[in-house]
Amino acid sequence: MPDTILVVVEQREGKLNRVSWETLTAGQALAAETGWTLEAAVLGSGVLNFANEIAAKRVSKVYAVESPKLEPYTPDAFAAGLKQFIESKQPKLVLMPHTYQVRDFVPKLATAMGRTAISDCIGYKKDGAKLIFTRQMFQGKLAADVSFACDAPWFVTFQNGAFRGDKVEAGVSAAPVETVNVQIADGVIRNKPQEVFKEAKQAVDLTQAEIIVSIGRGIKEQKNIELARQLADALGGELAASRPICDSGWLPMDRQIGSSGQTVAPKLYLALGISGAIQHIVGMKGSRTIIAVNKDSEAPIFEIADYAVVGNLFDIVPPLIEEVKKAKAGS
Amino acid sequence: MLIFRKPLEGIERPQMPADVVIVGGGPAGMACALRLSQLIDKHNAENPNSQLSKENIYVLEKAREIGQHCLSGALLDPRSMRELLPGFEKEAPLDAEVIKEAVYFLTEKSKLKFPITPPPLRDHGNYVISLNRFVKWLGGKVEETGITVFTGFAGSELLFDGDRVTGVRTDDKGVDKENHQKSNFEPGYDLQAKVLILAEGTRGSLTKQLITKFDLAKDRNPQTYGQGVKELWEVPSGRIAPGEVIYTMGWPLTTKEYGGAWIYGGKDNVVSLGFVIGLDYPDPRLDPQRVLQDFKQHPFVAKLLDGGKMIRYGAKSLPYGGWWAIPPVAGDGWMILGDSAGFLNSQRLKGIHLAIKSAMLAAETAFEALLKDDSSVKTLSGFQKKVESSWIKDELWKVRNFHQGFEHGFWAGMFHAGIQQFTGGRGLRNRYPGTAGYEHMEKLAELPADGGDEARLLGPAKGDGKLTFDKLTDLYHSGTKHEEDQPAHLIIHDTNICNTRCVKEYGSPCQNFCPANVYEMVDDAEQPNGKRISLNPSNCVHCKTCDIADPYQIITWVPPEGGGGPNYDGM
Amino acid sequence: MNILVCMKQVPQKDAPLKLNEAGNWIREDVSYEVNEPDAYALEEALRQKEKHGGEVVVITSGPARAQQVLREALAKGADRAIHLEDSVFVGLDALNTARAFAAAIKDEKFDLIFTGLQSDDYGYAQTGVILAELLSWPHATIIMQIEKNEGGIRVKRELEAGFFQFVDMALPAVLTIQSGINKLRYATLIGIKQAKNKPLRKVAMAEVQSAISENLQKIERLYIPQKTKKTEMIEGSAGEIAKKLVDKLRNEVRVL
Known about the structure:
Chain A is of the alpha/beta class and 331 residues long.
């Protein structure tokens, strides 16, 4: 049997979790490098349509792993169901996105199978025949290359944003889809989950934001924050600030980024009128893309910016808001 | 609106009785606790029927960890440690024994070596140490003896019964920016102590309360201070040997400022360097952190540090006043040790050994007080007598007029110092008067607008990010952290003075003399001069400079919530 | 309710870290502190004890320095502490750590075991879940709230994107606790004094050796992440800059 990579995607509330595409991209890349076969699976009850969605991508086979007991999600059911499935298919590598749900059951699954999971990885390397997975440690201060010291199946979870979901390759034709029924005995499921509900969050968790528009002293006055807010809204992002803005009470403390506030690593960090004092930088330097707008060409923020605009933010931001709105509306 | 820290009123506070409470876990506080423990152990061994307990002897340390707020060059004269712990060299964390000293007079581009190292600066026999590590070790020994060290607790107020000090109140925890109780509020404890020992270090806040209440400073020279700004660097190996000691004078200072730099080679290619400047300079625009950055640009320093990495930053004030500025050190229920009392030899630039010796003598006095069950001034004044008949007096007597000799500039100071050298410290008269540092500060109207000769010392450093740094970047490397939601602990008694007078008369020197960017004048159209005083209290490195140097003397530094402050790892 | 809180000592958040000679771990001469999420787990346990009575026991593994975490917990109100003392514990993976803990508590009877949601050094978020599997107990992760009820407890689980879920569970169970759910209490002077006399059981490696085995994963190399950054200047009139930025946002950053 050829070696297989199994990507287990996640579905919730009747939708495929977008981050699953990222994991599939990772799987495609690994398959290309190792020459192993790429397969995917989705767990649940009545999940055939999700399997079909995945089958449109370049993957050898997709499984709908079915059991009425897999809905709603419980760690007991998912660990039991996936264990059964993995034991029958024997993939070499099992990839999942590092979501709250995956964190909730994968360590249990791996332990039940006498294996281990390298979680929250940001990438991988090949060292000869050995696969090495890279992850951040000490809150991003250091990186670690980790390898497996046990037999397959090897469990790996990838961090949000580590791979580009939009880069997943489509298949030439739809991949074959197979429904696999798993048996979960009575008494296996112990937790009784209730309905999922949304709640107004008391505090803003900037660490979950994909896009952050952040302001510094360059905003000059409290009333100018409205401009930044409009940009954040247009982009669908969150508003944040460097310390002095929060100290002045212009924005609440939970919007503060930096050594005495939150540490974030969003897809996009737009720094407006922020000089880039080290106290602020340590809170955002892990951002995937940093765009900085500042009047001062020597502002330290430009040292870590991907795109630099030396100019007056009050001149730049209004047309930027317009262009963003146009782009979102138009196409 | 600035809201300042004050102990909450009308609340019940837990009471805790104590035999001895030592406020401050620095070298003096720890040495005192250790010595006291030794005396008690010895007594108990010899008196099985009348045991003394260590259960109710406490050390209060405001830092989260022992040693965390300790900063000094440092060079340790082992004299008192050898008395406290014979053979201590074998187990104490000492970086290196001093092998080489050199004293230089700097000009902008060159250096002139003193052909003979002046005797006070000869350091053979001394050790290069990290005071932080040393105190951590010493504190560990204290804890081993069974004396409780409460870390994360500050002494916020003295407790009195008439003229007697009856104990200390610890800080209220969980108080928000507006002085309201948070959900995790914990009131400060009232530690009712038979003997209260103040070992708070330089410009102790409780010591200041005590001195004010009992007017202890009358008949004394005012205490004068310097500020030391320090950076710890990792340099390529071979640049400087462990145990190599360098002092400099001259550039970048002019003859109007008192001070100089030190460079000590530690182990593992770590260099301790810093600049000390007397807080009696005339130009309020002078910025000591900037002076350090200037100093590093001197070719010989730049060469030393080239390719190296700055790993830590800190600052602290130090008492220069000498013998005549030391207040009475004992009274009804209290004693003052170490830098809090002013036991520092400003000529040798050393005070740790004196702090430790003073601590040992205080411990002996406290021990007697416990035995006699009398901690009134009758017994505790024994400490005063012990100090006056010890080598502390011998050493400090010889330099009793040293710093005062510099009141009129560098050359006058050198002249007086020279004479003092031959007259056992007397100089031209037995007691030179002194003036408080802030009284030397001149108004902007009296100074050249461009700063004149001092221009290079004035205003904030820009920093190149490699050899020199701006204040915020340096500050980041002090590891300073505080609970953010708490009242400001730098109490400005009249902010109108800041906004209306000081901004014009002195140009708000707090922005310059504070090494931590705590003080800032921000734009405010509603103020007569368009600016308003604003504070970043969580930047504070607890150096006490503001309390000392503010020309109007309207700033009182009190401890913030315990556990907060700098992290002087390795300093 | 008898609750065990698993706590870890980690390097201080802003401690400058240096790599060891072998390049596979950090030099241990840094300052340490309690793993912040574990402090919240302890706080929650102490609150449950205040509400429902019982005992709070804290456990940690690591060299002598790790004892500090236990002392602080005892000072805050925990009743007993267990210290698996050996520097070897530092290098164990989550599975072995969980096995060691399970072995150390085999004679104890807990209703609940709490851990923080992850550690600030490794950040795996696995130990609590693995421990539940080893003990065959139910578990739930990223818990915001715990209420006692008829069948055991009802917990509030945090999900992504502002969603939450209540889950009913029987006891005994393992919970990993979300950070920031409560204000952490301060240790008091009396608490610190009393902590000295509270039982602290030391467990040597030899006692749990048989429960653990070789790590199933290995850190090959630890290093400072190098970011090769090329800053691209965006120039022109304000309008032109806006257009160029949007172009980048659409095609490079992919947020539009």
